[in-house]
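#data-curation
PF: Archiving a pair of folding outputs for the training set. Convention for this channel: one message per protein, sequence first, structure tokens after, nothing in between. First:
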Amino acid sequence: MKRRDFVKKAGIGSAALVSFPHLADALTIAERALQPGGQPTDTFLLLLDGPYVPVPHAPNLGLLQVDLSNSSYSTTKIYRVSDLPGDPNRGNRPDLDAEKESARIGNFYAALGSNLPVTYDLPGGAMTMVFTGSNVMRIPDGQGGTLIVGTFELDITEGTGVYQSFVGGHNKMVDLLHRLADGTFVEHCFCIITAP
């Protein structure tokens, strides 16, 4: 899909794409990953979506590099966008538009505003990642909040289960994070996860 066609389809303002041409490139990479035959087994796409809430109780995910009992961590939902490694239902993913909740597959944990590692709790295992860079801009939302728009780069430093082979891999987050006037955060983020 050409960048201009994706921009029309997604309804993204041209000013944002002029400021962030890499954002448009990242989004078209995600689009190509969903096309038939374009999905290598070492790449998959997830959606983080919804409000961040405090972690009610820290799950034991078998990861050593992150402490989810740290009160800094919050969590939001992970949704399936493409097939996952080792997925027995490969090719039978739910339609996100028709039944979003049935597409929910896990939880994402982050200590917002810090450099602490993040965690993906997914079917078949979990992953720890560390931020290595970002290219974002902050835009007032006109209601006392801020939109944080752009990309984040993360390295995969730990994996369990089917995600062990992803250690040393990469995650490009294409993010629209909304900090509301009351200080809460709402996430809308595509994660393009690749093995080394």
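PF: Second:
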Amino acid sequence: MTGLILLAYGVAILTSLLVVPLVPTIFGSAYAAASDVLLIQVWCGVFLVYAQTSGAWLMAERKAKQNLYRNVSGLCINFSANWILIPRYGATGAAAGTLLSFACAYFLYDMIAPSMRPMARIKVRAMFLLGIFEKLRGPRPV
């Protein structure tokens, strides 16, 4: 999972750095506001990696109900966030609501649900790239 998270971080960081100057250059100044939406939406990729990898783990562990519960929780959060944010912020609010719902459903849910805590530990290690740092440090003395 750490490798996929690293890839998602790379795409998100690169896009975040380039989106503001590139969108108006490529599409014209009329689309400059789309930069804000893309800037938020690209970070959903990190949580999509969590969703895909932990979803496969849930299916392998025969925990389909947990998968359903976290997806429904994400749906409810997204609906609520969009209800609040879209009238005030438009498409940027929709992107923020989606990011919030992904973070809650595919990261926070695992922290809260006791049966998901083993996966939460794996996700935290991946989020902070701890596996990579351990490999760089080398083996621990026994």
